[in-house]
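Batch job 17 of 40 flagged for manual review because the log was empty.
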Amino acid sequence: MALEAKRLRAIIGGSAGNLVEWYDWYAYTSLSLYFAASFFPKGDATAQLLGTSAVFAVGFFMRPIGAYVMGRYADSHGRKAGLAVSVGLMCAGSLMIAFVPDYGSIGLAAPIVLLLARMIQGLSVGGEYGASATYLSEMATRKNRGFWSSFQYVTLIGGQLTSLAVTLILQALLTKAQMEAFGWRIAFLLGAALALGVYVLRRRLAETASFEALAKDRPASGAAALWRAHPREFILVAIISAGGSLAFYAYTTYMQKFLANTAGFSIQAATGIMTAALVVFMLVQPLFGSLADRFGRKPMLLLFGVGCTLVSVPVFSALAATRDATAAFAIIMLPLLLLAAYTSISALIKAELFPTHIRALGVALPYALGNALFGGTAEFVALRFKQEHLESGFYWYVAIILAITTFCFWLLPETKRTSLISED
């Protein structure tokens, strides 16, 4: 009983930190309209937003670097240490954003500090995925690994929703002028405080039995060693992550813009539809994780791959012609429920493919590369198709990439049986 309580505390600690990490990451996008003028010269509001968007992009492409650095660190110093350093970096980045003086006070130093803070946060988020995926997978029992690992996406989506909720509360309590003057800093201070609390919690977590069982003369973790020993797994994880990330961003973050720009919903209506959809999407993750524990990982992956390949074009086409909010919500839930079959176990299947000494890096690095190349560019690709008056081309682009991803799912072993996480 004591062992189970210890395991439960560890899983809660690991997943709670993931929520805080993603809250801090998404707070930037939620509040950029308010702080853009603080960091860039007064004048053109569009230019100011472009400046904040460029800084966001730099942070996004720091994630593969964070995956490499933090993945090696977690493999060398332990999962608990990797989790603590990851959330510590996020705390530092949020504090820098909260306290940096504006452009009027320190000139060009203001956007430079913002850039450095966002780079630190990018390193943090890049490292968080591999460390938390590995920790949750190794801490869960063999029987319930799908269920417990699903909380990584529960907390990822929860962080996004928490960021939105904090923004809405601040908007309700403060005027627009107050939000631009100091209100946005409150959200980053809150994120830093939460991250500090999680840092203390993570320092007290138990280390996983998998890492503790490693011999002191274990093989070194590194990109070259990962590629030499596991090239097939590296490629499969990168492609799977590319397709999964593309679907996730297409059906969550980009979908809000699609509802407003193509379907013709107001921004408020589009936000309401997607908030409701994300809440349901978050809540069903443990259900699909449990189904993977019962029926295996591969059936869930193929359900997502085949299902979303087939429905992508019809779903986007139907939404483009929909003007009813209830109908739009129902249509969006179809691909999101199929996507949940993947997101609930996406971290677990990767962790089960790699041996302990290189697991954190094996999960993090190919994921970060696939995510950056296809997930991070999803919105750009969609908008370029729209700009060229070929918007349906994006629907087919998603379907084709998912068809390739489905083929890679077929090539995977059934990791419920072949898992390299051997202990219970």
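Reviewer: the log was empty due to a logging misconfiguration, but the result itself is present. The mean pLDDT is 87. Unflagging and moving on to job 18.
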